[in-house]
Amino acid sequence: MTVGSRALGAALALGLGLSGMxxxxxxxxxxxWRDQQYWLExxxxxxxxxxxRGEGMTIAVIDTGVDSGHPTLSGAVVGGTDVSGAGDGGxxxxxxxxxxxxxxxxxxxxxxxxxxxxxxxxxxxxxxxxLDEDEWADWWEDFEASLEEIYGEDWQDEVDAEARSEFEETxxxxxxxxxxxxxxxxxxxxxxxxxxxxxxxxxxxxxxxGGGTEEQIAEAxxxxxxxxxxxxxxxxxxxxxxxxEAWDEAFLYAEQNxxxxxxxxxxxxxxxxxxxxxxxxxxxxxxxGVDESREISADSSSQGIAIGxxxxxxxxxxxxxxxxxxxxxxxxxxxxxxxxxxxxxWAANPELSAQEVKHRVLSTADSEGAEGVDPEYGHGVxxxxxAVSGDVPAFETAQYPTLAEWVRVHRRGEVEPTETDEIPxxxxxxxxxxxxxxxxxxxxxxxxxxxxxxxxxxxxxxxxVVAVLTMAVIHYRLVxxxxxx
Length: 485
Fold this sequence. Notes:
alpha/beta, 38% helix, single chain, signal, 10% strand, Rossmann fold, 2 domains
């Protein structure tokens, strides 16, 4: 690995930090976390859910590992791997920011359930229809005691009275018993019916367990494509606009297999004032961050011409490993919001290509910033409802640069030498004797004023001397003749 590659790897490792992360005490009710997800309404996500919730789509989360056992991610993670050599798809051994991947995953495709809701669901999953009256009475008494154990003394405030009455009368478990049951319970992702793949990295150079950052990123992207990802989310970044040439093949592989890559632009608080790789790679959808009032985040958003769109980056909430939730900030959270939006667009419009999905997301954004593509907002702030169902301008391939074209222009290798050892039989050319090739004639060197001015001056001086000497000789002879006569 070159010095530049090692420096890039170190920058990527540092860029994974959560900018301005704020840990919050657990809320008393799960719906208090849901209430903080202002982007669900503000960005038209709940409206888009009337059309689709992302079913059939798969989002790969290339990050620090995802806790698939968290209630809001139960059933969401359908596969995973570790490319660091230090883990198994969960958080790798020695990983920093172990919560990061779970936070990211919950915003992309969290199911919106909590430990309490899961506990209630487990209670009503029991087969109670065949119980006699005495058995049912005993079961119901135990059921109410369990609700109090789950929710506390105020459990009746948490249980839907109508659903509870229906359950008591029919003994058939209703779909929702709690007041805050889905879609009102806990943190929920933008595409709550999409599937997730977890690809864990160890962003540390040198990596004592395996390959460095450069190799891990390339392997992670390739694995995600091979294992059915439609969309890849990369909530990580570097302080370099350039990327290792080793990444070309992996990101080209994603492009050629019609996989959309979404990446965070980076956080100013981490020292990344300008967008860094992988968000700068052509074809990647780079996401900037805004606050609740849609102002560019002072700490949680880098800027640059690579920016495609902006989404919420502060304040955010998300799932923590275990059963917890927390508040956090950063474009690391804005990116999975956009990845989830892309999943909704694709689920509603399955005939589209990855580039056309990107086109719908960008062309329907709420315009912010300078006219055209703004270096902070890109095309504007995400509008999911419009991206899913709105009218969009005709898609033009030329509007969206591809990595394949960039590589063709910027990665030109040496031209392979043409084999000339054999001459076709029908060429009518007779090969000469073997040996060293003859020397090619060298081109003449063009003359300049400096080349000939010196010699001309010397020649002129010599001619003048000769002329003077000649005149002197003639004069001398004439004088001698006069004296003799």
